[in-house]
Amino acid sequence: MRILVWHVHGSWATALLQGRHTYLLPVVPDRGPDGRGRARTWDWPASAVEVTVPQLRTAEFDLVLLQRPHEAALVERWTGRRPGRDVPAVYVEHDAPRAGAADSRHPLADQRAVPVVHVTHFNRTFWDCGSARTHVVEHGVVDPGHRYRGDSPSVAVVVNDPVRRSRVAGTDLVLAMARRLPVTVHGMGVRPLAGQVEGSPAAQGLSIRENLPQAQLHDVLGAHRLYFHPYRWTSLGLSLIEAMMLGMPVLGLPATAAPEAVPAAAGVLSSDPAVLLATARRWIADPVEAREKGLAAREHALTAFGIERFLDDLDAVLQEVLA
After folding, report:
1. Sheet hosting strand 63-66, strand order edge to edge
2. What whole-number distance in Å separates Cα of residue 216 and Cα of residue 229?
3. For residue range 91-147, what is the model confidence (pLDDT) as tens digits?
4. Alpha carbon of 230 to those of 163, 169, 216, 253, 271: distances in Å?
5. CATH architecture for residues 152-304
6. Hey, which end of the chain has fewer CB within 10 Å, N or C?
7. Contact partners, residue 84, CB within 8 Å, separation at least 6
8. End-to-end CA distance of the chain
């Protein structure tokens, strides 16, 4: 199968591209959001093929995998084919609804041409898709291997753009923990965080590592004693699943799909920052308990979020659309 798909979410795309198909990735001259092409920080297979807009006019593809509302118009403008009418299509919804979550209407609600594929059951339950066909294909992650060492008595966080995404990303919770424990924030766009806390008590325990390639990031994360997932409202972060696969014990808020993803044996989810802080302190003081939690986290993540299960589930949806 030849699938037209945009490079939108690098980690999710990395899982998708492990499949048995050829994936056409639009690329524009400035590699902006509507044409990033192949990733620069992930190792993608040769089956991920860059195509320019002129090449798309005559390119052959069997299905379009949409991820943003405006992509359907891009397909029609660039190829002359309307998704859901002239070429089969699915829409993968990566996010949980934001404002008015319980009654948020999905952009593809009440149409029957393009089914909506959610990445968590929580997201499908909260989005109002009306009469649109919906599916759930839960995340899959390429196993990075057991890399946990935990020799650094510190807390790891992975978040992109923590200043801009402040409350949603739980940046205030990260800074509060950094006033009491060593915390390293990894991700893209984390440098502005240093300026925000410069001269404040939070700066003392805060370190920043920006834009590490994925393989290097996994090695660096494995050195930390534990992983903290501070998001108040998000879909299920792939960084959380990756941390579990690395063998890290995890802390987080019991928000959105996290309670279904993190069993009690693998970590602690709590809305009480005092509980999260006390648990982090305990694991820093007790590397044996931290390692035991991390081993349970890895075992669960491999079973629940293995790459083969993900690819099989997604292929079943795609085959249904093509039938």
Report:
1. 48-52, 22-27, 2-5, 63-66, 89-93, 116-118, 134-136
2. 19
3. 999 999 987 777 899 999 999 999 999 999 999 999 999 999 999 999 999 999 999
4. 13, 6, 22, 6, 10
5. 3-Layer(aba) Sandwich (3.40)
6. C
7. 72, 111, 113, 114
8. 13
pLDDT recorded at residue 279? 98
pLDDT attached to residue 21: 98
C-alpha 291/C-alpha 309 separation (Å) is 26
83 CB-near residues (< 8 Å, 6+ apart): 64, 66, 71, 72, 75, 76, 89, 113, 114
Name the packing angle between helices 214-221 and 238-246 (round to 10°). 60
Average pLDDT in the chain: 94
Choose among 219, 230, 226: nearest CA to 253: 230
Are 322 and 89 contacting, i.e. CB atoms less than 8 angstroms apart?
Answer: no
Pick from 38, 34, 33: nearest CA to 50:
38
Measured between alpha carbons, how far is 106 from 25 in angstroms, rounded to an integer? 25
Region for residue 167 given its phi and psi (left: phi exceeds 0; alpha: psi -120 to 50; beta: otherwise): alpha
The model's pTM is 0.93
pLDDT of residue 99: 75
Q: How far is CA 3 from CA 12, 38, 207, 240, in A?
A: 15, 14, 41, 28
On the question of a common fold for 2-140+306-322 and 152-304, the answer reads yes
Residues composing the chain: 323
Strands 134-136 and 206-210: unpaired
Sketch the domain layout of the chain as residue ranges. Answer: 2-140+306-322, 152-304
DSSP string spanning 82-124? -BTTTB-EEEEE-S---TTGGGPBPTTTT-SSS-EEESSHHHH
What is the per-residue DSSP string for 193-256? Answer: HHHHHTTSGGGGGEEEEES--HHHHHHHHTTEEEEEE--SS-S--HHHHHHHHHT--EEE---T
CATH 3.40.50.300 fits 2-140+306-322, yes or no: no
